[in-house]
Amino acid sequence: MPLVEMEVNGKKMSSNVEERQLLVHFLRDDLNLTGTHVGCDTSQCGSCVIHIDGHAVKSCSMLAIQANNASITTIEGLANEDQLHPVQEAFKENHGLQCGFCTPGMIMAAVDLIKRKPVLNEKIVREELEGNLCRCTGYQNIVKSILAAAEKVQA
Amino acid sequence: MYQFNYIKAKSVEEASIALSNNPEAKILAGGMTLIPTMKQRLASPEQLIDIRQIEELKFIKLESNNIIVGSVSNHFEVYDSKVIKEHLPALSRLAENIGDPHVRNMGTIGGSISNNDPTADYPAACLGLGAIIKTSKREIKAEEFFVDLFETSLEEDEIVTQVSFPIIKSSCYMKFPNPASRYAMAGVFISKSDKEIRVAVTGAGENGVFRWKEMENALSNDWSVSSADSVKISSDGIMSDIHGNSDYRANLVNVMATRAVENLVNEH
Fold first, then answer.
1. What is the mean pLDDT of residues B191-201?
2. How many Cα atoms sit within 13 Å of B37 on the Cβ side?
3. Which of B48, B72, B78, B105 suits a disulfide with B28, CB 3.0-4.6 Å?
4. Smallest CA–CA separation between B234 and chain A, in Å?
5. Which domains does chain A have, with CATH numbers?
């Protein structure tokens, strides 16, 4: 099996992977980073969103081997020890989740969004959440959380 | 997913050789169609040749009166490109509305046109602007490149390397996205240069993207919203599926075309 090398949440690692292994399965099954979820098998739900070299991508639609030499951040890599990331904090404060299944993907998408577009409004947030499905909240509090986080990051 | 082997090509030459050595191999660019298709076991290539990180294919540049986009440029890069925003804003906006942000960070222009999905956006821009598609072997006009559903004039061992779009300031793309997938239910790309008016339709044709000649003629005779509004496309040859029947889609084509002309008339 080919060898891949990556930096995952700041730590360098290497491992042998099967060519057909999806990145999300590599993260979950081999690295035990089970915060990244698999919510569908059609690449639509976005609960597997992670950052590769600073950009949000769906880890279910990418092979582990494609991420060779990449720098990866998963939901586990956002908080600074006990200090939650401002977006995580905003989801907590604004009740931005119910069952929590979509939340890792939502938060990773939101972090990427706030970085790309620091000035947000509700319309932009809803458009940008196109690739992330939530079946509980009706998105109300997710949108609220992201707007609150963006404001905090701006301040 | 079925087992396959994987190679990462360092150059177009290396990818071309690997592709001609194995008729069961497929090129992997962003993978936003290929990997989901393989996950569903609807495709089972024996080998994937990854070209996403070939440096010579990753560029966007202005050259005389053309914008040239390297084939592994992703949708976000096309949207975000300063040169494209300035000279071909319609192309930037088209890229901005493909799929979702995560897909835009991976999916590539070369992958999109090589796949020639009948509901993809880029084929409309290529045909609507009269782009030239450069491959590892030759240059192909957009008219000759898109052949039928998921079919192009690419040979088995040919790889798209760049797409050259003529700069036509007066151009506009209007699409009615499928509310779930964001693929076009109907998308109309119109450009008006000193030479000609082109109207390309995606998302609707049973044989994929096509030029709508009646609309081109009507607009060449009379460039106005009422002229656009007076031409109605026949529903013969328009796709019919669970998302909408051919009459509904034909109407969407009419509406998108009129909106595009409205937009262009108001802009200038």
1. 97
2. 13
3. B48
4. 33
5. 3-77 (3.10.20.30), 86-154 (1.10.150.120)
CATH 3.40.50.10540 at B55-166, yes or no: no
Per-residue pLDDT reduced to its tens digit, A25-51: 999 999 999 999 999 999 999 999 999
Task: Give residue-wise pLDDT tens across range B199-225.
Answer: 999 999 999 999 999 999 999 999 999
Q: Which CATH class is domain B171-267?
A: alpha beta
Q: What is the pLDDT of residue B268?
A: 62
Choose the mutation target among B39, B42, B77, B100 for the interface with A, i.e. most A CBs under 10 Å: B100
Residues B176 and B162: their CA atoms lie apart, in Å, by 27
CATH of domain B5-50: 3.30.43.10
**How close, in Å, is residue B101 to chain A by CA atoms?**
7
Confirm if B37 and B44 have CB atoms less than 8 A apart.
no
Nearest beta carbon to residue A43 from set B5, B36, B48: B36
Q: What is the ipTM of this complex?
A: 0.96
Domain locations in chain B?
5-50, 55-166, 171-267
Q: How many CB atoms lie within 10 A of CB A110?
A: 31
Q: Average pLDDT for residues B219-232, to the nearest whole number?
A: 97
Strand ranges (E), B105-170:
132-135, 139-141, 146-148, 151-152, 160-166
